[in-house]
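// run 5 | inverse folding | seed 20
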């Protein structure tokens, strides 16, 4: 199976969906303004920022992109950029040689094939260098308001397991399908942001003491931050 091809949507009971909707409402209560934390002014900037965010924090990307977009604000200009200059501009995000190539080649494809516009569908987005399903979901959901899937990053993967939404711990495509089956489509983009906000604020990967957050206490059936001792 292709890494970007999703497995069949699993069946979920009304009880499972009801629990998921209750969890969603609780997340909205504690994080009422779910949003993408990558700074961007348009779909092109979001696409580039998301490519740079691979194996890198949003904070670091947000410190890198202002100079990048000031120098190369459009696909046309970035497509013509010397590769060495792109490498220097994005060096602090890590894996900068591959990322610079992705930025340049993606910009070339946007310019030559899509008239300088970022596509509004999954198939065309996946034809761009450096773009897999996760990146495409980010762009479609946040730049265009199109809910095609759920962004599954390390926080979403961790919380999906801790909240006992899935027993799948590795395959992000399978996790995404489970979340798509449990939650209403109109909330898919928000869901990722809500889980990321909670993962960063309360239900972190490593704890010295339990978080004692109400959401973790109520829904964290497999939540390590609730099961561990505070001694």
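// decoded
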């Amino acid at each position: 199976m292709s890494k970007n091809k999703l497995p069949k949507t699993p069946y979920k009971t009304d009880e499972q969906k009801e629990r998921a909707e209750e969890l969603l409402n609780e997340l909205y209560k504690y994080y009422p303004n779910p949003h993408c934390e990558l700074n961007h002014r348009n779909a092109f900037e979001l696409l580039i920022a998301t490519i740079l965010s691979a194996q890198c924090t949003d904070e670091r990307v947000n410190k890198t992109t202002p100079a990048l977009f000031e120098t190369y604000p459009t696909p046309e200009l970035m497509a013509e950029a010397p590769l060495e200059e792109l490498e220097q501009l994005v060096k602090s995000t890590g894996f900068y040689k591959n990322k610079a190539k992705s930025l340049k080649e993606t910009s070339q494809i946007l310019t030559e094939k899509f008239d300088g516009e970022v596509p509004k569908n999954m198939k065309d987005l996946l034809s761009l260098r450096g773009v897999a399903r996760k990146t495409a979901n980010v762009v479609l959901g946040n730049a265009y308001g199109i809910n095609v899937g759920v962004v599954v990053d390390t926080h979403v993967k961790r919380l999906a397991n801790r909240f006992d939404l899935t027993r799948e711990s590795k395959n992000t495509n399978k996790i995404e399908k489970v979340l798509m089956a449990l939650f209403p489509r109109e909330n898919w983009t928000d869901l990722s942001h809500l889980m990321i906000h909670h993962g960063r604020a309360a239900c972190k990967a490593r704890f010295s003491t339990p978080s004692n957050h109400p959401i973790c206490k109520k829904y964290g059936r497999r939540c390590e931050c609730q099961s561990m001792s505070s001694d």
